[in-house]
Amino acid sequence: MDEAERRADFTAYVEARQHALARLAYLLSGDRDTAEDLLQNALAKVYRHWERIQAVELPDAYVRRIMVNENNSRWRRMTRRRESPASHVIEVLDPPTAAHLDPAESIDLWQHVQTLPTQQRAAIVLRYYEDLTEAQTAETLGCSVGTVKSHTSRAISALRTRMSEATA
Amino acid sequence: MSDIDPELKAVLAERGEGVRVGAGLADRAIARDRSNRHRELGVAALGAGLVLAVAVPLTWSAVTPTGSRPFPVGPSQSTSPPTTLPSPSPSTPPSTLPSTSGRTPTTPTNPTTIPTLRSTGSPSAAVLRPSTGPATGITDVGFVVDGIYREGQRQTKLSAPFQRPDLVAALGDGLLITVGDRAVVVDAAGRTLRDLPTLRGPVAVTADRSHGLVTDEAGNLLYLDSRGKQVARLAATKGGAAGWQVAGLVGNTAYAVNTDQTSSVSWDVLSTRTTTIKGAVGPIDAAGRRAIVTPGLSPGQPGYGCQRLVDLTSGRTIWNLCGPLWFTSFSPDGSHLLGQGFSDGQPPELSVGPTGKLLYQQFVVAQADNGRVVLQGGGDGSRSTGSVTSARFGADGSVTAQITAAGQQRDLQRCTIEGQCAVVGAAGPSWQPDIPEAAGPYLLAQN
Fold first, then answer.
1. Looking at A93, A127, A156, which one is the last position of a domain?
2. What ipTM score was computed for the predicted complex, to two decimals?
3. Which of B249, B261, B408, B424 could bridge to B213 as Cys pair (CB 3.0-4.6 Å)?
């Protein structure tokens, strides 16, 4: 695969998957700038190893792992690139509230999700948004299935408690 | 499924729905990869041998000997006794590392104390003071801008495929250039002399530019003449699972690091003798007399985060420095070291002080004799102006650096060790102006 083919192949992949990957990045980080940084770093690494990744591995799984790992890095958050608004490729709009959700509760729950510890938030995003199995989530997080269960359980418990407190 | 599960799924889906992606994400990722490669080329010689602070309770003002340690040289792969060249010239380096020819490492005959230093950020170093405006000075450091290689009065127009290279090194009268998977040696007029195999990692060139050292994609170490012809080769199989990584080239002695960063090799190209060195070697000064050696340790291991300055002629460790400094090159006279003041991706507690501030800024210059940082700049590297994106020593010991300027542009400045800078290349946009992480507009030569 020459450079032009590689670039074209990679670009086709990104164009096909960019919305899904950007959403994951945003849900993991809860922040547009961080999401953009996570996504671009992950894709840069995918591009570096494109031949191998597209040949032997699912690119989405690789991108997920990188984004989760980088989001877990406090250092990454400390030193991430700061760019001008004009440079953003990700935009986050106010979403239409799903018909069966109370708007206020929806906002509260989203805010509580963002206060979860990074690993717990990653676990619930992978389980409840990406619909990954516990084993797939464990592989992505680089931990055991038991740890995934623990992260998920604690996250749900914390969310339930906080939502109860808010309601009360 | 608990009562909160459906609601959580709905909220995550709802929030995800609000995310939109604009055009050009793939282009930006490719540009970021290119930018990352540039940074890695500048610092790859130390690879994973990171230098981070450890708890050695000493300060610059209290440098204390901690006892003698042998220079850790592993078994030689040669069966012949080591050769020591007593008076190495810049083009003829010492074959110096005390090869043990199968013996276990021994203590030098005249053991000396090795000061272990802890870099604490104190005393404060001079801070880089970038200038602004049009070019008012000149630099002797070679660089590419607008598809032209410039070095003093010399100019070489690069042909179309090579006008935005990933790496440029002056070799012979021409240049060694890599772009993507292509690598070539061109003559002074920019005509291709030789196509090289796909290269990876940094390259090294002798001080007289007569020879080059590169690593091919398989990890083999290739020693080239001034026109790019392969003169000698050290097989990748001796360099670990992924072969070698170039560390330096002094005369006919090549230095390379095993890809696991735990050991290095000194390869005498003429005699083909190789000597194993414990730790990752590099950078090496132009005379081949001193080198930084970083132990290939993992976090938590004693000595992790420290690096040694080693006298290659005697094997003596001059100092052992522990702190968030990552040196990438010596000044031409060997008196100073250029490097970084922290390493991206490392735990902040190892690079920041008690107040949460970084001990050092992004860019540092230190005295080689004692490791003391005398100049720093660039903040944490994320400033909209004043970040140092690449830097090289000039022949006079000044530093030429590409620095971010207003409007996401970058200029080229020549700065003294005292931090005073003059613009030597006007500010311009990166090669892809709409992509902040794209490279350029200046690419500094490797030598």
1. A93
2. 0.90
3. B249
